[in-house]
Amino acid sequence: MRPTWTGVYPAVTTKFKENGELDIPAFIKNIEFQIESGVSGIIIGGSLGESSTLSNEEKVELVKSLQPYREQVPVIMNIAESSTVNAVEASKQAEANGADGLMLLPPLLYKADADETVEYFKTVAEATSLPILLYNNPVDYKIEITVPMFEKLKDTPNIEAVKESTRDLTNITRLKNALGDRFKILGGVDTLCLESLLLGGDGLVAGLVCAFPKETVVLYELAKAGKIDEALELYRWFMPLFEMDIHAKLVQYIKLCEVYTGIGTEYVRAPRKMITGAERESIIATIETALANRPKF
Length: 297
What we know:
Elements: E1 7-10, H1 24-36, E2 42-44, H2 56-65, E3 75-79, H3 84-96, E4 101-104, H4 114-126, E5 132-136, H5 138-141, H6 147-153, E6 159-164, H7 170-179, E7 184-187, H8 193-198, E8 203-206, H9 213-224, H10 228-242, H11 250-260, H12 277-292
């Protein structure tokens, strides 16, 4: 299924067994719950999916495990590489193994300039027929995709959308003013998701959706229906949970949320460690408070 880049796209966590191996049954359980809740696509192998700890073979295994679900939702593979050659190869591998689209980061480690970054994106796009969602997150990855850069990419047809994570909401308006609807815009920061939608964003790439998919889909639907008061009420309930998405330990925090909602496991791969002590107690308190006041739909 081809992504429309509208609606809610969970950047799903990768499930592991206690011994560190992939836990495909637990992974599928979460995916099925996401689909039942009405998400519009699945993004695998992102930062929240602990991509830096996954081998290429494991990424292929995750893609293949979702083949039975591709008629229900598109499967998007994240591409995060340090070299153009590796990014091209990863994109071809994703396409060959059944991905329906790509989320593409700028080159890692080296802070490429604007021309180098644009050329990187174009080269990867030309190597695949898959539709591409660019990931614009200079806070974490040090390279910003600016409006002039998007203007240079507008004639690359399969670059279709952007995950907007700059934390500067005016970028949505700037991009709309410059290029209209040429690129779909998906809000990429949970704590700014409602604002992103109300400013014209087409969808969300979300984190807490991994544990609370129904609430995230309803928030999107309320915003798009112009039901602002109802959206605000849900957004305010969600905010203490959303704060977990912008923390360095978002993986551990969100996986713990998944445990409490019954659709995940807590195991992570080193160098990450499961949280303990006062930090764990604080996160559990936030989760339990949210669950005690959880909206009913």
